[in-house]
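Take a record.
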Amino acid sequence: MHVGVFLIQSASFIHLDYTGYIEYRTSRALADILAHLVDKSDHHLNLNSKHLAKEMISVMVEEDEMFISHDVVSLFTNTPIDLALQVIQERLEGDTELHTRTRLTVEDIMDLLKFIVTTTYFSFRGVIYQRMFGATMGSPVSPLVTNLFMKWLEKQAIATAPVECKPKFWKRYVDDVLELIKKGQVRNFTDHINTIDPTGNIKFTYEEEEGKQIPFLDTLLVRREDGSVKRLV
């Protein structure tokens, strides 16, 4: 395929060196401000096997339950920016300690953030392109934008899940989610979480446990006969 055509269709998948962009310092400063909003909820996971192993200590799996994992298809390039900005603004307006971290108002922050996430022009081999949707790969603030959006989506998904497929256990690292649900409810639960994003951009794929075990991040989880969980790195 001709390079120019490929870029027009798939530029959002290209990882660019963002450090030379005029927006880099502003993006870095905004990331520092928003980092405090990504608080560690009960569903949060750090990217290490030690944290996951600790969370598994008290988990007991019933005979009619099973582990599954979900993953968002291309989270960065499919994050609905308008909705993500709305979520972030609501979080900022409810942040009583914002004034201790910055002299900027919520309106100032949102104006700068909107400029950063929508100014997506770049050049490649002498041609200027614009990414039309999603978050910019390489921008310091993009992981915060996508993570805060996922935190909102996660909360909505769990709160509105039908009783028969509501997960007993839910742990997430960015867009990787580990759940414990009733057997036979995988499709129903997947269909449910795929309806949470009103734009229809965010879609989840899933993986079921096989042979009473499932890999997640850098850990293999194995169900013992008594319902406890063995962890293998």
Remarks:
- Residues 12 and 109 are 24 Å apart (CA to CA).
- The first helix runs from residue 3 to 10.
